[in-house]
Amino acid sequence: MKTPANTLPTDVETLQELVLKLQSQVSTKQNKLDTLQSKYQYLLEQFRLAQHQQFGRSSETHATQGDLFNEAEALLGNFVEPEKESISYTLNKPKRKPLQSGLMMGYRLL
What we know:
Blueprint: H1 12-55, H2 71-76, H3 101-105
């Protein structure tokens, strides 16, 4: 709140009281601001932790977990796949059968 300069008191004691009052208001507001900032940081950290727990890496994973089910590969050893045969074929396009002769007799051209 700004006060015009011509409405301020001119005596020193009143001005000193005004300055002390304003300093106490500033310190009170600064304390409230510090409290709110610490609460904000706490809530932000809680939000990040919740996101990490829901979407982060699972604790059940392990670096060697990929080797758990490799028994089949170990049993096969140096198995060589047989050569692949190539199979070719042609598709015969379906052909329309001619209409029966009795169906065409009742049909007339317009």
